Amino acid sequence: MTRRRSGAGNDEDAKTLLTTRSPLPLDDQVRDRLIAEAQGSPLALLELPRAGGFVPPDVSSIPTRIEHGFQTRLTGLTAEARLLLTVAAADPTGDPGLLWTAVRHLGLNRP
């Protein structure tokens, strides 16, 4: 993923993304802090609020915080669901036919 540095145009795009995807209105200072911490990464803009909010500078990297947020959300899933996500993530083609073949081969229940 190419990361763009924050600039006037990029900040407006980031504000639009946060406004359209946030379930709650964001205070201007909170929104501006998220934009600064995301450093132009749309994934970081969407995941930082879910990854535990703000931390003091230099405590952990943005990718580490996002990864931790994903791990936290995965803990509530069943072992089968986690395995299904692992198989889907390992497939570089994105072909659902291959995924369902793997699901059957692993003996997982198809939803």
Fold and architecture overview:
- This protein has 111 residues and is mostly helical.
- The chain is built from 6 helices and no strands.
- It is elongated, with a radius of gyration of 17 Å.
- The N terminus is likely disordered.
Shape label: elongated
Radius of gyration: 17 Å
Structural class: mainly alpha
Provide the helix percentage. Answer: 55-70%
- How many runs of DSSP E, i.e. beta strands? 0
**Distance between termini?**
31 Å
Oligomer: single chain
What is the element string, with H for helices and E for strands? HHHHHH
Number of helices: 6
**Averaging pLDDT over every residue, what do you get?**
76
* Low-pLDDT windows of residues: 1-8
Instruction: Estimate what percentage of residues fall within beta strands.
Output: under 5%
The biggest beta sheet, please?
none
Features:
111 residues, mainly alpha, 6 helices, 60% helix, elongated
